Amino acid sequence: MSDTTLNLTDSVYHYLQINSLRESEILNQLRLQTHKMSMAQMQISPEQGQFMQLLIELLNAKKTLDIGVFTGYSALAVALALPDNGKVIGCDINGEWTKIARQFWDKASVAHKIDLRLAPAIETLQILIDSGEAGTFDFAFIDADKVNYPTYYEQCLKLLRQGGLIAIDNVLWSGKVADPSIQDKDTVVIRELNAKLHQDERVTLSMLPIGDGLTLARKR
Fold first, then answer.
1. Residue 7: is its pLDDT beyond 90?
2. How do the residues of the chain divide into helix, strand and coil, expressed in percent and rounded to 5?
């Protein structure tokens, strides 16, 4: 029994992975491919992808959002957990990164579940709201440009059904949010959003030390 979270040393992290991780071959291939890129640190960890798959099953989700697709790992993980008629609407602006994503979605035979919208996510989400899709989504994953996190959060909250779940990545931001001397724009935005969510009675909240910090917000 402990009143603190265990420090994940390299050996403990390795133990966690070999005794918990069930990463599929196609997800592993995509992760290794992404690791060759200069921006590889933008990819979520495999245990976070697996955790999201568990959330999808618990929610019986069919309709989801993926804001910040990158090379497609999170969208692929979610799509694999969705039923055959499930849908991921992916939001990104980078055609080169998402070209890799499309290749692996095709290999995994889940491309029919993923609707990639190459446009600013704020525009895509607003189009969904304006077209009457508010209150119809089960799950949203936010992992894109940090300065727009507050807007993404508000838009996703509108789009989610009651009981739906928003997962927000990078909320610990390599520990920068805990250091008041760090005042760059991204850090300040994340810090302020964390404080806002702590007081937001529209959601049930939990911030978890997974990856670079993952906040779960369930719409009441």
1. no
2. 50, 20, 30
